[in-house]
Amino acid sequence: MSGEVYGTQRPRKKRWGRRLLITFIVFLVIVLGLLIALDRFAVGYAERTIGDRVSQQVADQNASSEKPDVTIEGVPFLTQVLDGNYQEIRIQLANLTGPAGNNRTVKVANLDVRANDVNAPLDTIRNGTGDIVAKTVTGTGTIDYPQLAELIGQPGLKLDEKDGKLVGSAPLQALGQTFNVSGTATVAVQNGVVQVRFSDVTAAELPNVPIVRNLVNAYVQKLSVDLRVPELPLKLAVQKVEPRPEGLQFTAGANDVSLNAGGL
Questions:
Q1: Left (φ > 0), alpha (ψ -120 to 50) or beta: where does 141 sit?
Q2: Cross-sheet strand order for the sheet of 237-244
């Protein structure tokens, strides 16, 4: 009799053990799912909040753009909140349009902004006091060549990139004829202003006589342009401009940016 009782109890204990293990695994899966859902909810809320504040800052600068696309990099998000440090916050502004000086407007198809090494202590976020600081903030954008040619304002001007340089060509009226002149431009940044200056403008068919040379020199002056990039969020200042196949690409940057004061 004792052997029969022992034999029936052991399978029951095994079944009970399996059920307990399955229940525990299901519980862990549910908890993990809830934590993931909470993490994604928290990061989504933070991204929307940042996007709303950047939109307001763009509007305050007399500019416009589509709704910012904000991504807080790094998973999980909640561990970054508790640690008070964020790897990277990426903000993309599509169709940023703003004043460029002299009653001109510049449109940037996509401004890609990245704030790195963001220090945001939990107490600062909770109490709303103190600074949230990004060690570095960088932004890149492109002004396409048709738009740049329009801003220069010379009929028939065509711009492109060749061997890393900005080149242009345009028709020029001289001696009762139309000649196609071409040249290379230098591009530089001075006090946040993009300067485009053409030089070595030539045309094989043009006679090398003083009157023609004076016409060419006068035309070269008309090809020069000072272009102010629309005021950028997060105190970004244009630091470098370089010709690319798709257009004139500018790079802006700032260090130790207080995101509280910069629109976030």
A1: beta
A2: 69-72, 85-101, 104-119, 133-143, 247-258, 237-244
Angle CA 257–258–261, to nearest 5:
125
Contact 116, 137 (CB under 8 A): yes
Is pLDDT of 202 > 80?
Answer: no
Please give the average per-residue pLDDT across 221-243, as a whole number: 83
Q: What is the mean pLDDT of residues 67-73?
A: 82
Q: Are 185 and 223 in contact (CB under 8 A)?
A: yes
Chain CA centroid to CA 53, Å: 16
Q: How far apart are alpha carbons 81 and 172 in whole angstroms?
A: 62
d(CA 108, CA 120): 30
Distance, C-alpha 149 to centroid of its chain: 23
Can you spell out the DSSP letters for 168-193? EEEEEEETTEEEEEEEEEEEEEETTE
Average pLDDT, the chain: 76
The span from the CA of 171 to the CA of 182, in Å, is 9
* pLDDT above 80: residue 97: yes
- For 46, counting Cβ atoms within 10 Å of its Cβ (0-12 exposed, 13-18 middle, 19+ buried), the class is buried
Q: Is 245 helix (H, G, I), strand (E, B) or coil?
A: coil
> Percent of the chain having pLDDT more than 90?
14
241: DSSP letter: E
Q: 123-143, pLDDT tens digit by residue?
A: 665 555 666 788 999 999 999
177 vs 206: CA distance, rounded Å: 10
By three-state DSSP, how is residue 229 classified?
Answer: coil
